[in-house]
Amino acid sequence: MRIKELAQQAYVSDTAVRYYESSGILPPPRRLPNGYRDYDQSDVERLKLVAGARSLDFSLDDIAEILALRDRREAPCRTVLDMLAQKADEIQQRIIELQQLEKQLRDLHELGLTFPTDDIDGKNCVCHLVSERAG
Amino acid sequence: MRIKELAQQAYVSDTAVRYYESSGILPPPRRLPNGYRDYDQSDVERLKLVAGARSLDFSLDDIAEILALRDRREAPCRTVLDMLAQKADEIQQRIIELQQLEKQLRDLHELGLTFPTDDIDGKNCVCHLVSERAG
DNA sequence: TATAAACCTTGAAGCCACTTCAAGGTCAAA
DNA sequence: TTTGACCTTGAAGTGGCTTCAAGGTTTATA
Q1: Min CA distance, A112 vs chain B (Å)?
Q2: A16 is near strand D: CB distance < 7 Å
Q3: How far, in Å, is the CA of B28 from the C1' of nucleotide D14?
C-alpha cells in the first residue's frame, strides 16, 4: 500500500509518516517502480504502536526505546508498563501545577475587577498586579 | 544598569531579555560607550510586566498586545481582565483533557498488569493495547 | 603586570513534533 | 487532454527560549 493508506489506517497524516521515517522511528520502506513508498501490514502494526503511544503523550525517544526492544526480539511489555506508570505520575503533577495556575488567574481576575480600568502606568490597575507577581 | 541587573530584578535570564528585544517585546535600549546595553527603571517595569504575564502562561503575542495599548497611552486593564478570564478557561479545559489522559494511562497500566510480559508480537501484551487505541 | 574571572557582544543552531511551502513528477478518470 | 488526486524532495516555520561559538571589556587578585 502507498503512504496515504498506511497513514489513514493509523489515523495519522502522511507528512507525519515521512517525519517518523526521517527521525528513524520507521525504517525506509520499499519503493514502487515509480519511486512511491510501498508499505505492508507489518508497517501498519508498527505505525499503530507509534500512534497509540503518541496519543498517550509519549515522546518519540520513548517510542524509539520500545521499538528498539522489539526489533531486538525482546518483549517491551515491562518497559511499557513502567512508562505508563511514570507518565501517569508526570501528568498528575502537571495537573496540580495547572490547577494552581488556574486559581492564580481566577484570583487575579476577581481582584482586578475591584480596580478602575483606566489607569495606564500607576499601581491602581490589574496590570500592576501582573507585574508584581515576581519571585 | 546593565542587562544582568535588569534581568535579575524581573527574575528572568539575560538571554531571555535579549530574546524579548529581538522579538520586539522590549525596545532596543541605549548603549554604553563600550556597546553594552544600558537600562533604566522604566525598562524594569516593562520587563516585570512581561515576566509576570509569562508566568501566567500568556504568549508573547498576548503580551505584545497589552504593551501596544500601553505604548499608545490606552489603559490595557480591560483587555488584561478579559485575557485572565479566557486563559483561566483554557487552563480549565486543558486540566480536563489531562485528567482523561491520566485515567487512560492508569487504566492501561492496570489492565496491562494482567497480561504476560514476554509476548513480543502477539495480542497478549500491553503493547497491543497501546497499538489498538486508534480513533 | 599578568591573568583569571565575570561580565558583555553577535549570530547561528538546537529543542520538540510536526506542518506548511515550493516546485516539481505520476497516474487514473472524464 | 486536462483535471485532480496522489506522490516526491528539501527547506523553512511554529514558540520561547537555551546553548554554542568566538570573540571584546572590565574588575579583582596574585
Answers
A1: 7
A2: no
A3: 25
* Interchain proximity B115–A10, CB inside 8 Å: no
* Site of grid cell 510586566: B49
- Written as nine digits, the cell of A57 is 503523550
Which of B91, B92, B118, B121 best tests the A interface by mutation, with the highest count of A CBs <10 A? B91
> For the segment B73-84, what is each residue's pLDDT rounded down to a tens digit?
998 899 999 999
Give me the amino acid identity at B29.
P
Q: What integer pLDDT is reported at residue A116 of this predicted model?
A: 84
Query: Residue A79: what residue type?
Result: T
> How far is Cα B114 from Cα B125, in angstroms, rounded to an integer?
9
| Residue whose entry in the numeric block shows the C-alpha cell 499503530 | A48
Q: pLDDT tens-digit profile of A31-78?
A: 999 999 999 999 999 999 999 999 999 999 999 999 999 999 998 999
What's the predicted TM-score (pTM) here?
A: 0.91
Nucleotide nearest to B38 (CA to C1'): C8
A106 part of contact set with chain B, CB < 8 Å: yes
B98 near A98, Cβ under 8 Å? yes
Three-state secondary-structure class, residue B132: coil
Q: Which residue is listed with cell 503511544?
A: A53
